[in-house]
Structure of Nucleolar complex protein 3 homolog:
Amino acid sequence: MMDEDDLQLMKDLGQRASFLTRDLSSSEPVHVKKRKHERIIDKYEKIPRTLQTAPEKELIHLLPIKDKSGIIPQTREKPVTDSNKDEEDQEAARELEEEIIEDPIRELTIEEHLIERKKKLQEKKMHIAALASAILSDPESNIKKLKELRSMLMEQDPDVAVTVRKLVIVSLMELFKDITPSYKIRPLTEAEKSTKIRKETQKLREFEEGLVSQYKFYLENLEQMVKDWKQRKLKKSNVVSLKAYKGLAEVAVKSLCELLVALPHFNFHNNIIVLIVPLMNDVSKSISEMCCEAVKKLFKQDKLGQASLGVIKVISGFVRGRNYEVRPEMLKTFLCLRIKEVEVKKDTEDINKPKKFMTFKEKRKTLSRMQRKWKKAEEKLERELREAEASESTEKKLKLHTETLNIVFVTYFRILKKAQRSPLLPAVLEGLAKFAHLINVEFFDDLLVVLHTLIESGDLSYQESLYCVQTAFHILSGQGDVLNIDPMKFYTHLYKTLFKLHAGATNEGVEIVLQCLDVMLTKRRKQVSQQRALAFIKRLCTLALHVLPNSSIGILATTRILMHTFPKTDLLLDSESQGSGVFLPELDEPEYCNAQNTALWELYALRRHYHPIVQKLAAHLIAGAPSEGSEALKPELSRRSAAELFEAYSMAEMTFNPPVETSNPKIKGKVLQGDSFLNEDLNQLIKRYSSELTTESPLDFTKYLKTSPY
């Protein structure tokens, strides 16, 4: 219990300021309001006073320092700028500007500018040549100079930047082709890096690492040039104009194509493929053709098939990604693949199995101790020889070629199924015609049905329908011999459409027709009836009357082969032979047109043809196509195929092939080329040779032309 005095004291303290923070001796209440009219002088007197002996300096606060005692702030005085010095600097700058204005730089004339540019360019060329020569002389010691040479790809002088960059691109490309080893350089493992090696090995490793890194940077530079051109992106430096980007890009693409073909074994070859394949479908025709030719060259020289497989995979994915809207030239490159003689189905008898060495138990049972010793030495030698030879086995080639063909056929079948009206269809049909003998037998029936459906649809051009016929007979001439399939509808289609060929736009289709006839009649002679052979020979001789000379030569050469293949067809040369029925030339069925009741009267018209080779072939066939005698053909004609003769006497240049010299002594030595004969007006010809004609009448001029070789 508390006393009354103590209780009263506690109540009094509760009405005052906090006794924990204030002086308890003060008797002023806690909640007393401040004086509203406190005097200003008293407030001022309470402010502490400082003596300003020197002006305050402006400080710059720095990062603090931390030690055991705590954080120590750091400051530094701000330097005071001298206004007088700034004024002097400004005056000096004004004087310098005035001097520059007073003495301006003299502008060079165009001639002087060209001379200066030529001088700069010559210096750059000498520098490039010096670096390249040093690298070629000793690649291992001077590999670092590749970086110096590559740095010139960023030439900043606007006068010579484009030319120097092109020269450096080509120089580096040739250098890499020369100094690159014939093997792929792999990265070193951690164990190999930590192993102690000799100086020569270390030098070789440094060379390989430097070569791979510089080669990688070089390819990245080429890729960037192509991207800049495609995106029309102007660099900040503005050294190279947008117009010059195309020239740089073309040189870069050409270098990439050269490296694609020359270094298929080296590092980053797949990266080059990924760059080249989209450019095969480029809008620029020159770049597209350049890339397609490079891929064709790679296919032709690739013996194993590893590089070809990589390209085929990328092309197939690209075509599918573009929904089959690409250039036909991309798919035409497939025709250059070197897989003509490879079978898709593995045949264990054809594959050379690797030699199996004897086990220790077999040696112990069959051989003596000395024989075992000799056998062991012999097997060791064989293993070393096999490793030194480093020849790829037939089984590995077969595996690569099989995978390549599978991708090719998948691409072809997808287009046949999903894009039948695509411009890629001719290339697909041409490819199927070439590789049809490699297709699996299980797909033959379905493929023949698809080809016949395409022909009957009427959506194909004449050339595309010929490719369908050619593909069908290539299928049947290979593994399709075992199938019981009647291709009569394809014979009928070709026989019916032969007269669509003429001396105009369809003349190029004659070559495909000649190939089809070779597969349909010559190679399938046992399945072809005599009536069918007679009908085709008669129609071919009629066709030879209204096509260009080279086509007539090819058709007559095919007729000669058919007459040798089917000897009984010589009855068409006898005008007095009679058979049952009447020849029906308008009938589209070769089996029922009664071709045995007609004669080859067309050969007598062709014997008077203006082309000398057509004359010889027609006279040769009239005589029965003999192999000896006066009417026999010379070896340069008899040993060539029909397609080769068609190409040899091509009229693509619109000139007589071969050119014909006139026999007139007054104009002896002059050659009437086809283009001049066709382009000159008849009246100009009359005036030109009026001195040699008795009269200028059209009748006499016609007689004059009849006396000429044409």
Remarks:
- Strands lie at 59-67, 70-77.
- Residues 113-188+195-267 form one domain.
